[in-house]
Task: inverse folding
């Protein structure tokens, strides 16, 4: 047992941090400091900077553009990226559909899609949830009927994040209506420009537009866009959902948020001192730091274990990462809301989109309440925390 | 970055586990607890034979070259078995103090006797007013020629009733709450003027109230700098908290397993109660709490060897907070999920719950450490 990084790993961390510090464009740095959301262009620009360095898809196999780093280096890289405040990679491409194509796609699909995912030439969205299929995903009803060289897809997807930006959607569809629930589902890649697709935005409680409904009306998808075998899509979906393991805890991001909260709290007046002098506040901050440290160590245990386990075999312990990671992200956004106090109240959605008018109140305050409201999502998406508890109870405890 | 035990360490763990499994059937434990010492001399001798009582000693004093990881392994196994032996008092605290500040002669005279199982030590430190402040010492030691005279009272001295030698902190200079002016003295438990009132603690272990009235000890009884014992006390208490964290993990792992077992076998409404989602989710939350505690116990173990004492203390205090929080949750929920049977003295769950409650209280509970850590700038100060 030795919980320290080796000197090589520390040197690697310094190299990664140094690169990010030098390469992250100034406007993005400013947005990060003010807690403002990144635009599509920001994410594309940053992804291409990383891709030019060969670091856009480090966890992919080397022959597909990966770096060959071991899990500890992958972790160090991801942690440094999250702590830098730089835009997150678009998970739908690099963490979700990319690995599925690598594992189950054919050679033509790999050549066609993977380089464009790594360079974010294609923006991907996820067509899984439906109005009647949320946590019970396998009850999905969007149907694909074979017609010559095409599937004809009819149905409705929902909660589709960034469908408004998307060039492609990976989609679970029912190809065998007679088969039982999990059987008869296939994994299709759908070009968002195909006739019959309608994207309708859904405004969320924070005022933002991230998610959408996607209606599919006689959408013709070439058979060559089927991944793997027909009716085997559920296995690929399970692979995909279990694949996002260590990133989901977002420990590095929460660390960075806590540092930001400290900086803001040190400036905000509270009585004769600042919020940072407020004993109750400091104790809550410290309590989150302690839980986060425990989560970081749990995450490192998973990372260290990955070196020994087979690749692609999800560790059920990763359910802890999702559960605690989401709780801590929520606790952190809640704490910042309270630091902001009355400054959190003015609703200034235009501040998120580069409006030129001066902000009302402190420049960091406009996004505080929306971020708090928005982050209620993290315990719902990616398998709700209740589903994670089900997984722990069944897969780990055998109940 | 490696969280696994070496082959040797895994073997070490198995051997301790087997020894304790052989001696700690639930009824046997009860017999030990009700005996005069409150623990088993036989188990203690076996631990001595295995070299466990000299785990972190130098080879010169019979040591086996073990470090914090070996202590963690042993403590976790003691926790699983709810073992009652005075390992924390004698080996972690007592011998720990000797290792860090005793002279070569003092070590040679005491440590081999600890190693062979012939000497029980206890750390007499807590006082009526001190609560968890290690520097709050009112008990006094004054020089009398070449000797020292000790006066004062010490509370909840763990295993103070069966100890042969008490390691007593006493003020040699300064005011009651000064950091300087604290000495550490090895006092023979049978010395004139020492009165011990032994009692059982809530978790079925033993402790003593110790009164010192005009107790005269030789100059050789003073361990280290007679005015500068506090840093050693702080270091050893950090080591004890790391050890307790590992013990708590052992207690929690066994308690959680027992609870899940109960959920699988207990039937109501025509089904195993573990098939009900409300209970499944509780068991899952307990699992998360145990694993988070385990992660922090590992961190605390690593921090024992950290030379920056502020960094060491911050992280070990953080582990104590996590252990306290996890232990309380897991303990309370284990009783709840066991239902009525969990309330009975014949069910092991309650005994584990009481041990976890005690561990939280020892050397400062979660709230105490949270307040102190927050006041000192938090876990990750700028």
Result:
């Amino acid at each position: 047992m030795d919980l320290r990084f080796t000197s090589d790993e520390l040197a690697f961390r310094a190299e990664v941090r140094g690169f990010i510090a030098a390469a992250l464009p100034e406007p993005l740095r400013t947005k990060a400091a003010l807690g403002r959301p990144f635009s599509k262009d920001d994410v594309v620009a940053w992804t291409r900077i990383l891709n030019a360095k060969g670091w856009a898809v480090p966890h992919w196999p080397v022959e597909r553009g990966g770096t060959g780093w071991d899990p500890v280096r992958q972790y160090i890289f991801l942690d440094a990226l999250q702590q830098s405040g730089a835009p997150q990679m678009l998970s739908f491409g690099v963490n979700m559909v990319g690995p599925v194509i690598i594992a189950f796609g054919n050679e033509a699909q790999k050549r066609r899609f993977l380089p464009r995912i790594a360079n974010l030439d294609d923006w991907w969205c996820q067509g899984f949830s439906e109005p009647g299929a949320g946590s019970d995903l396998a009850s999905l009803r969007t149907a694909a009927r074979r017609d010559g060289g095409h599937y004809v897809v009819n149905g409705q997807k929902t909660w589709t994040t960034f469908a408004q930006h998307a060039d492609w959607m990976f989609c679970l569809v029912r190809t065998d209506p007679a088969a039982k629930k999990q059987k008869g589902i296939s994994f299709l890649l759908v070009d968002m420009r195909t006739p019959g697709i309608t994207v309708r935005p859904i405004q969320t409680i924070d005022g933002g537009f991230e998610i959408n409904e996607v209606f599919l009306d006689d959408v013709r998808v070439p058979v060559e866009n089927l991944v793997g075998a027909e009716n085997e899509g559920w296995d690929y979906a399970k692979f995909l959902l279990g694949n996002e393991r260590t990133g989901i805890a977002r420990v590095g991001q929460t660390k960075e948020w806590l540092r930001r909260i400290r900086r803001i709290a040190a400036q905000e007046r509270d009585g004769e001192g600042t919020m940072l002098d407020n004993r109750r506040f400091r104790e809550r901050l410290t309590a989150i730091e302690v839980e986060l440290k425990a989560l970081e160590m749990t995450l490192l245990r998973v990372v260290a274990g990955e070196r020994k386990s087979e690749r692609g075999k999800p560790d059920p312990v990763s359910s802890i990462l999702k559960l605690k990671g989401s709780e801590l992200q929520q606790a952190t956004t809640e704490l910042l809301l309270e630091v902001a106090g009355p400054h959190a109240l003015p609703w200034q959605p235009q501040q998120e989109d580069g409006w030129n008018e001066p902000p009302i109140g402190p420049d960091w305050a406009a996004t505080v309440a929306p971020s708090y409201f928005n982050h209620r999502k993290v315990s719902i998406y990616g398998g709700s925390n209740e589903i994670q508890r089900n997984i722990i109870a069944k897969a780990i405890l055998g109940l | 970055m490696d969280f696994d035990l070496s082959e040797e360490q895994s073997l070490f763990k198995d051997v301790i586990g087997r020894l304790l499994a052989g001696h700690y059937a639930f009824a046997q434990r009860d017999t030990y607890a009700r005996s005069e010492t409150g623990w088993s001399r036989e188990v203690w001798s076996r631990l001595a034979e295995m070299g466990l009582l000299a785990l972190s000693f130098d080879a010169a004093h019979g040591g086996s070259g073990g470090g914090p990881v070996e202590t963690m392994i042993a403590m976790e196994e003691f926790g699983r078995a709810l073992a009652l032996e005075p390992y924390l008092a004698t080996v972690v605290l007592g011998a720990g103090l000797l290792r860090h500040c005793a002279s070569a002669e003092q070590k040679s005279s005491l440590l081999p006797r600890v190693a062979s199982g012939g000497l029980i030590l206890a750390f007499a430190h807590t006082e009526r007013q001190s609560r968890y402040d290690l520097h709050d010492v009112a008990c006094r030691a004054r020089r009398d020629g070449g000797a020292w005279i000790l006066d004062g009272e010490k509370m909840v001295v763990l295993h103070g009733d069966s100890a042969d030698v008490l390691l007593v902190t006493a003020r040699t200079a300064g005011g009651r709450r000064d950091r300087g002016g604290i000495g550490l003295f090895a006092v023979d438990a049978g010395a004139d003027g020492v009165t011990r009132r032994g009692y059982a603690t809530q978790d079925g272990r033993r402790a003593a109230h110790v009164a010192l009235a005009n107790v005269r000890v030789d100059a050789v009884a003073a361990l280290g700098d007679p005015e500068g014992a506090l840093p050693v006390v702080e270091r050893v208490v950090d080591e004890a908290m790391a050890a307790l964290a590992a013990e708590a993990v052992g207690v929690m792992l066994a308690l959680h397993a027992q609870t899940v077992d109960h959920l699988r076998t207990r039937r109501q409404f025509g089904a195993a109660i573990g098939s009900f989602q409300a209970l499944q989710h509780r068991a899952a939350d307990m699992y998360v709490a145990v694993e988070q505690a385990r992660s922090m116990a590992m961190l605390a173990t690593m921090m024992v060897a950290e030379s920056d004492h502020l960094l060491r203390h911050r992280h070990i205090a953080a582990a104590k907070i996590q252990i306290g929080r996890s232990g309380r949750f897991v303990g309370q929920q284990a009783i709840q999920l066991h239902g009525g049977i969990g309330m009975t003295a014949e069910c092991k769950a309650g005994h584990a719950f009481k041990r976890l409650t005690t561990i939280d209280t020892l050397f400062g509970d979660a709230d105490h450490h949270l307040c102190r850590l927050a006041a000192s700038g938090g876990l990750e100060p700028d």
Notes: The longest strand of chain A covers residues 211-222. The mean pLDDT of chain A is 93.
